[in-house]
Amino acid sequence: MSHSDPSCIFCKIVAGQIPSRKAYEDEEILVFHDINPWAPVHLLIIPKTHIVSLAHVQPEHQALLGRMMLLMNKLAVEHGCNPYPDGGFRIVSNTGREGGQEVHHLHFHLMGGPRPWARG
Ligand code: AMP
Ligand code: ZN
């Protein structure tokens, strides 16, 4: 079951109503480049369905979350991160106001690439 929130910026990106630089797509997952990158590689990995945050995930999302995790190393290396262990990447999922979440559609930041980074 897929949900969409018409006022959500990431749902609009999924629907193609707002442009994005796509890095990967399948039926359930979209990956695109962050518009304001913190690092040489800065991707956002999102479910196509509107899940608000990690505080909202349910048992029915287990396989989807697992698939997102399993994609990360491949995405990192294909988009310019050096391989583990000298390279690697950082995954962040800001959750809620005190967690620094600005866009309330679940997303994982994947950041990596040669240092120094703009932030972090
Ligand atoms: P946060 O909710 O704080 O984890 O971060 C939301 C992220 O979405 C920020 O890093 C923004 O730069 C990024 N962002 C917001 N709008 C867009 C957009 N239209 N295209 C790509 N990235 C975006
Ligand atoms: Zn959404």
Describe the main β-sheet briefly: 5 strands, antiparallel
Taking the alpha carbons of the first and last residues, their distance comes to 36 Å
CATH architecture: 2-Layer Sandwich
Within the largest sheet, what's the order of strands? 1-2-3-5-4
CATH fold group: HIT family, subunit A
Structural class: alpha+beta
Give the CA-based shape: globular
Report the mean per-residue pLDDT as an integer.
97
CATH top level is Alpha Beta
Radius of gyration: 14 Å
Helical content (DSSP H or I, runs of 4+): 10-25%
* Helix count from the secondary structure assignment: 2
The residue ranges in which pLDDT falls below 50 over 5 or more consecutive positions are: none
According to CATH, the homologous superfamily is: HIT-like
Tell me what portion of residues adopts beta-strand conformation.
Answer: 15-25%
Q: How many β-strand runs? A: 5
Order of helices and strands: HEEEHEE
Describe this structure in words.
The structure is a single chain. The protein is an alpha+beta fold. It has one domain (9-112): HIT family, subunit A (2-Layer Sandwich), CATH 3.30.428. Helix content is 19%, strand content 21%. A 5-stranded antiparallel beta sheet has the order 1-2-3-5-4, with helices on one face. The longest helix is centred in the middle third of the chain and has 17 residues, at 62-78. It starts with 8 loop residues before the first helix and ends in an 8-residue tail after the last strand.
